[in-house]
Amino acid sequence: xxxxxxxxxxxxxxxxxxxxxxxxxxxxxxxxxxxxxxxxxxxxxxxxxxxxxxxxxxxxxxxxxxxxxxxxxxxxxxxxxxxxxxxxxxxxxxxxxxxxxxxxxxxxxxxxxxxxxxxxxxxxxxxxxxxxxxxxxxxxxxxxxxxxxxxxxxxxxxxxxxxxxxxxxxxxxxxxxxxxxxxxxxxxxxxxxxxxxxxxxx
Length: 202
What we know:
This protein has about 200 residues and is α/β, with parallel strands linked by helices. The chain contains eleven helices and five strands; from the N terminus they run E-H-E-H-H-H-H-E-H-H-E-H-H-H-E-H.
């Protein structure tokens, strides 16, 4: 396995923007959200199991997961959330391992929204990088980007580990309360550090 940096952050923190900045520098990014989307797209490997467990109502006309309907269900029913995770998580773990092993860059960014909560993913990483910003800014960004109501964003945040716990688990932190240029400069500085760590096997 290559040197792996786990990238995480709360919803709306800017972790996807940070991941893209690393990708722009030629770093392989293994994104568990992107893997989950592929698994639940039309013809995705998880669709048959989702249809069998949840019923045809949770698969849309195109043959993909009906995300809006599933989101409402799992946020109101913990048992259903566990059932969905039991389908998706083993497949995501398998695909993410395959992608990391196939990487050709000196190190890999493993982007996992629930990295700290999962334990399993954190164990794979030599370092943990947290993208952080104030919670008020997280909510504003998600509302602007997704049109989700602020109350629903707060509900999603409540299912994630507390900001203080996430920061305490970090080896490195990017403060993303500024603009994209500031974020990119922070990524470039960390990229040089991670290249050194990967070369040294540290």
